[in-house]
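Design job #97: recover the sequence.
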């Protein structure tokens, strides 16, 4: 009996030591990856790899598409750096994500994790404290000394956003504490809007109170530094006539930080419009296939290039996209094309060379001027860009290092007409023999017989 007891104790000891070793190894990996996320060279390498293999499912800005959002606080398979690395290594083959350890070495996968960590945004690890006896100097808009107040309750807030609608009685105030991720951006700010006359805010980050600057009658701005930092928001409103909305503003992007802001965004639109220059948007798009990249042109013509098939899968007029549904639902819902469509088609307008419909390999796109899409088809490197736009037509230029003596066949859906001065038109295709060795053009216009969706 004594021997059995010793064996049981020994077994428990080994299980404990194994668990401790596993925990320490995970903690060491977490520290290594967090340090790598501050290495700009590693982040740049990771970004390049991410854009090659990950963006099609998870979006260019990690905002999500067919795959999960990778930059907010919600992680289905674990959000610790070591857990993200493990997900990359083993993949989820049953859900269409391959095991990348079979393709890339450990250092490359760690670079991808570094890039993902560097792009994290929003609030984490929130808790809130409710204090009694708040006496606020409303003229100076100053908070009292918390050491002199009575702490009513302290709660770990499992939601990932602030909630100022939590019922608290009388002269009480609520203080949220946690951490905030602010990616590198030009002049990031906290925006607090819909502030009432009885609302008093104090926001601190990295141990310092942020300077409050009035933007208009009900909106205040607080400049904040990039990086992961401690975050604190103190809020008092004795009247509680309305609940303010908080956002993190990164360039043109507004990221909701509290429940009221998230609820408002779900009911609102966020239109992307090309005005003086072209716009490129890589988000899930309604009625267009996965990995479609939308381009809006100032001339009020828009098109979508698909990075999987290397084809033009949609053209529509007027404004570009309403991305409001995509933002509100963390990439789960599709953005909505605005304006009148010429066509949406899964195959779209695509090329074959010398009669072969070979698999394509998308490589990159450039934003300068008219966006260009670079891809390889049948071992021929190609670039496609919009060259000329009118109200009723759009002309694309296809450039290559060598098109001489190549027979180009341009296939298109019945809802559009495609032309080229040197081409021979067949039923839904155009055969082109380029006069030079580097470039040919083709012009697309709506079919005069009316649109037919070929999906």
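Job complete. Output follows.
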């Amino acid at each position: 009996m004594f021997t059995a007891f010793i064996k049981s104790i020994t077994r428990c000891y080994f299980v404990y030591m194994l668990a401790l070793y596993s925990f320490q190894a995970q903690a060491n990996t977490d520290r290594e990856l967090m340090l790598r996320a501050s290495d700009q060279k590693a982040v740049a390498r990771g970004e390049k790899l991410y854009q090659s293999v990950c963006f099609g499912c998870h979006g260019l800005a990690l905002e999500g598409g067919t795959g999960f959002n990778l930059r907010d606080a919600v992680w289905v398979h674990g959000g610790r750096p070591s857990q993200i690395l493990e997900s990359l290594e083993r993949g989820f083959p049953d859900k269409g994500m391959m095991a990348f350890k079979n393709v890339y070495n450990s250092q490359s996968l760690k670079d991808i994790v570094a890039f993902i960590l560097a792009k994290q945004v929003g609030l984490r690890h929130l808790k809130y404290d409710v204090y009694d006896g708040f006496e606020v100097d409303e003229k100076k808009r100053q908070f009292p000394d918390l050491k002199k107040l009575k702490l009513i309750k302290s709660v770990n807030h499992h939601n990932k956003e602030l909630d100022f609608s939590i019922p608290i009685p009388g002269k009480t105030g609520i203080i949220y504490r946690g951490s905030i991720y602010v990616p590198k951006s030009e002049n990031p700010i906290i925006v607090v809007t819909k502030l009432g006359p009885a609302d008093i805010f104090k926001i601190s980050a990295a141990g310092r109170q942020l300077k409050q600057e009035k933007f208009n009658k009900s909106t205040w701005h607080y400049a904040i530094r990039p990086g992961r930092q401690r975050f604190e928001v103190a809020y008092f409103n004795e009247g509680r006539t309305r609940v303010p909305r908080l956002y993190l503003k990164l360039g043109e992007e507004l990221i909701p930080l509290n429940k009221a802001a998230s609820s408002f965004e779900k009911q609102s639109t966020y239109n992307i419009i090309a005005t003086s220059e072209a716009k490129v948007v890589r988000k899930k798009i309604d009625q267009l296939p996965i990995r479609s990249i939308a381009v809006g042109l100032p001339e009020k013509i828009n098109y979508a290039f698909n990075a999987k098939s290397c084809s033009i899968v949609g053209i529509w007029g007027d404004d570009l996209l309403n991305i409001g549904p995509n933002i509100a639902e963390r990439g789960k819902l599709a953005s909505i094309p605005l304006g009148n469509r010429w066509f949406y088609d899964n195959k779209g307008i695509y090329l074959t060379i010398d009669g072969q419909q070979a698999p394509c390999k998308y490589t990159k796109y450039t934003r300068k001027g008219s966006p260009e899409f670079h891809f390889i088809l049948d071992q021929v490197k190609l670039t496609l860009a919009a060259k000329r736009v009118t109200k009723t037509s759009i002309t694309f230029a296809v450039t290559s290092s060598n098109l001489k003596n190549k027979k180009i066949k341009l296939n298109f859906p019945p809802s559009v007409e495609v032309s080229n001065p040197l081409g021979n038109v067949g039923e839904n295709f155009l055969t082109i023999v380029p006069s030079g060795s580097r470039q040919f053009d083709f012009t697309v216009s709506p079919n005069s017989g009316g649109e037919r969706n070929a999906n």
